[in-house]
Structures are given as C-alpha cells and as structure tokens.
Amino acid sequence: DTAVSQTPKYLVTQMGNDKSIKCEQNLGHDTMYWYKQDSKKFLKIMFSYNNKELIINETVPNRFSPKSPDKAHLNLHINSLELGDSAVYFCASSEWIRNSPLHFGNGTRLTVT
Amino acid sequence: AQRVTQPEKLLSVFKGAPVELKCNYSYSGSPELFWYVQYSRQRLQLLLRHISRESIKGFTADLNKGETSFHLKKPFAQEEDSAMYYCALSGLGSQGNLIFGKGTKLSVKP
To answer: Which residues of A touch B92 (CB under 8 A)?
Structure first.
C-alpha cells in the first residue's frame, strides 16, 4: 500500500521527556515535511527536507530536531517536551516541483501532561 | 507577507443547498492555490488546485487575482462533504512550503 505512514498514532508523555515520531513514505518522493496542527486546527510547516537536505526550518524551538536517514524517511525528535508541544504532527511528502501536491500521513496526536 | 485567510471557522448548510467556502490570499507574485480536505478520522488530502481547472467531487474553485480570492464552491452539498477544508498557497521558489489558512469546518445537515 503506497502511502505516507507515521508512528505512533498517539503519544502521551510527561513534561521534560524526550520522544520521537517516525515517518516513512514509499511514493518515491524526494521531499518530506513536518507540519504541526494546533488545538485550533491551524496547520503550520515546521521543516522540509529535499533528498535528505534541510530546506525549510521555520521558527521552531531547537528542542525539535528532524533527522532524515534517507529520502524515504523523516523522523522528528523532540527534547524536553513542554505542555505547549501538545498538537497533532503531520508528516507529508511530495515531488520537488512547485505545484506538486502534498501527501500527508495520518498524523500523530501528541499529548504532554 | 504571504497569508491565507479563511474567514469562516464553521459553515453549516442543509443537504442540497449551495455551498461556498471563502479563501482570500495575500501574495505579491503569482501564487499557486490549493484546496485540501480532511474528512473525519482521515488524513489531509488534496481536493483540487487552481492550475488544473478541474472539478473534483462536484467542487470547483476559480482564482480571482483581482479580488485575491480562491473560493471553493459546490452547487448542491451532500452529507459526505462534511469535513475540514483548508485553502493553501505556494509562492514562487517555495516548493512545498504551503501556507495554510486556518480551515473551515463544513457541516452538511440532512
């Protein structure tokens, strides 16, 4: 099944912990992204990678560190989790063409208590 | 600055009624505009993009550069259209950096 898959689907953790979210795509795309959707459903880009190279790094705390071992994977590691990090995190991929549509994963709902 | 505005957080219509989800954008160059949809418990997915000039699931959207708008329309809403709709903009030289609006939740009542 060709898709963007991310794990875990739900993540509940305490403040101060370190956690990772994994993302994999088998669509043959060379560009991958992380988006954050807050409690008001607002979607905002965090990072994008093209062929394992960081392209976009929006104003995100450096507690968030993306890692791309190859162009099919883009993982998100978060250190010292804070309450405000609670959100749904979406991974996406696309071709490196301006109007190429993004293919999204199902999202990871992170809850920090 | 690039910005996408969807003025309605929630739009509620009855089945069979026309629906228009508004989207206005701010961009100095020539934008690419998209509509994405998120059905309940499903992933966000592309609905349509302005360069394709297509109709998907009965929805159409026309880019109006004079009014800087890209409203999504459907003449007869169906219950299965109930979802969260996001308008998005891509600027020149910014592959993948889609600027999303805050989304409009469409609720189609029977």
So the answer is: 98
- Asked if the Cβ–Cβ distance from B102 to A56 is below 8 Å, we say no
When scoring B87, B94, B95, B104 by the number of chain A Cβ atoms within 10 A, the one with the most, hence best to mutate, is B95
Mean pLDDT computed over every residue of chain A:
90
| Secondary structure letter of residue B59 according to DSSP | B
CB atoms closer than 10 angstroms to residue A5: 14
Q: What percent of chain A has pLDDT over 90?
A: 65
Separation CA A73–CA A71 (nearest Å)? 6
Per-residue tokens: B21: 């989800």
Q: Which residues in chain B have their CB less than 8 angstroms from residue A96's CB?
A: 95-96
Cβ of A94 under 8 Å from any chain B Cβ? yes
pLDDT digits (tens, 9 = 90+) for A33-84: 999 998 888 888 898 888 878 877 777 888 999 999 998 999 999 999 999 9
